[in-house]
């Protein structure tokens, strides 16, 4: 694959201010070559935590949104909920944080949409066939978009160095369950030589995993095991959205369903009516769905009360 061209500009202002420089760079990079006409354009961005200043100012987002609309597109700003505790863990808190930091329709001119919904469960499964992850759980609004634009800042990360566009899309577009899977390879631990026993880890852990003993924090193996088991149970409860017959349902199928039976004694030659047939369990005979087909047919044999009506027990010609 051919390397992308990267365009830079300095931060000096003169003939152009910084928002104008951003639009100039976008035009130079071929923004107008994209067909935006009547297409939904998701502008993926990090809205910032409350009280944090390490996020892009909404002035830059407005430049991108206005440019998309100028080219006939339907722009919206979006991000997915976070896995960790904070101001972006559900859509309501997330929108409050976004609006507080200036990402609201009055400032940017477009709507802000939390891509994976109220609780982070609105997602679409996307096959990736990776070594560790076979399918990615991506926020539904991002998958529904026709075009995705990554508008991101750089950040330092203790595991991966600098994070930018790849992290903004790869991690940021994941639903809460998707983020859980991406983080599952890393297991929490405490470097006790550096621990001062301040208790901050206890305050921020959503699962009460850390404990402090003799002024040192630790994550006990038993506690971690319980945490992992809880996560696995949650994954089973969430499921994949597909309805399947369970083993217990399959076993109870015949017991729970009903069959057409003789309501009273029926003689050969009698006509089946609502007065002489009814529906009772178990469901190993003719289904009640065939009720209208049975009515009016002639019995070709005798039936005792509660006896299952069998296919060979009537003639299909009406009398």
Could you explain how this protein is built, in words?
With 319 residues, the chain is α/β, with parallel strands linked by helices. The protein has 11 helices and 14 strands. The strands form 6 sheets. A 4-stranded parallel β-sheet has the order 3-2-1-6. Strands 4-5 form a two-stranded antiparallel ribbon. Strands 7-8 form a two-stranded antiparallel sheet. Helix 2 links the parallel strand 1 (40-44) and strand 2. Helix 1 (18-28) crosses helix 2. The longest helix has 18 residues, at 221-238. The termini are far apart.
In what range is the share of β-strand residues? 15-25%
Q: How many E-type strands?
A: 14
Poorly predicted ranges (pLDDT <50, ≥5 residues)? Answer: none
Structural class: alpha/beta
Strand order of the largest sheet: 3-2-1-6
Helix content estimate:
25-40%
The topology string of helices and strands comes to: HEHEHHEEEHEEEHHHEEHHEEHEE
Identify the overall geometry: elongated
User: How is the biggest beta sheet arranged?
Assistant: 4 strands, parallel
């Amino acid at each position: 694959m051919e390397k992308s061209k990267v365009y830079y500009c300095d931060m000096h202002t003169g003939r152009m201010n910084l928002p104008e420089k951003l639009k100039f760079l976008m035009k130079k990079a071929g923004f107008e070559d994209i067909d935006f006409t009547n297409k939904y354009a998701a502008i993926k961005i990090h809205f910032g935590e409350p009280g944090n200043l390490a996020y892009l100012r909404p002035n830059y987002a407005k430049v991108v949104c206005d440019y998309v609309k100028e080219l006939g597109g339907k722009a919206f700003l979006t991000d997915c909920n976070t896995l960790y505790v904070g101001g972006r863990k559900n859509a309501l808190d997330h929108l409050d944080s976004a609006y507080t930091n200036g990402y609201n329709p009055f400032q940017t001119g477009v709507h802000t949409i939390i891509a994976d919904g109220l609780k982070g469960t609105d997602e679409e499964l996307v096959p990736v066939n990776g070594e560790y992850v076979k399918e990615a759980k991506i926020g539904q609004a991002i998958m529904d978009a026709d075009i995705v634009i990554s508008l991101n800042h750089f950040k330092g990360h203790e595991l991966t160095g600098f994070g930018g566009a790849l992290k903004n899309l790869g991690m940021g577009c994941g639903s809460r369950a998707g983020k859980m899977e991406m983080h599952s390879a890393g297991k929490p631990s405490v470097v006790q030589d550096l621990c001062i026993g301040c208790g901050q880890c206890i305050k921020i852990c959503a699962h009460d995993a850390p404990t402090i003993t003799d002024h040192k924090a630790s994550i006990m193996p038993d506690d971690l095991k319980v945490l992992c088991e809880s996560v696995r149970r949650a994954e089973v409860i969430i499921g994949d959205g597909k309805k399947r017959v369970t083993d217990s349902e399959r076993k109870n199928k015949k017991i729970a369903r009903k069959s057409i039976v003789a309501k009273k004694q029926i003689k050969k030659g009698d006509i089946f009516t609502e007065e002489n047939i009814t529906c009772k369990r178990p469901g190993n005979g003719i289904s009640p769905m065939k009720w209208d087909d049975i009515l009016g047919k002639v019995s070709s044999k005798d039936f005792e009360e509660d006896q299952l009506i069998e296919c060979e027990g009537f003639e299909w010609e009406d009398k």
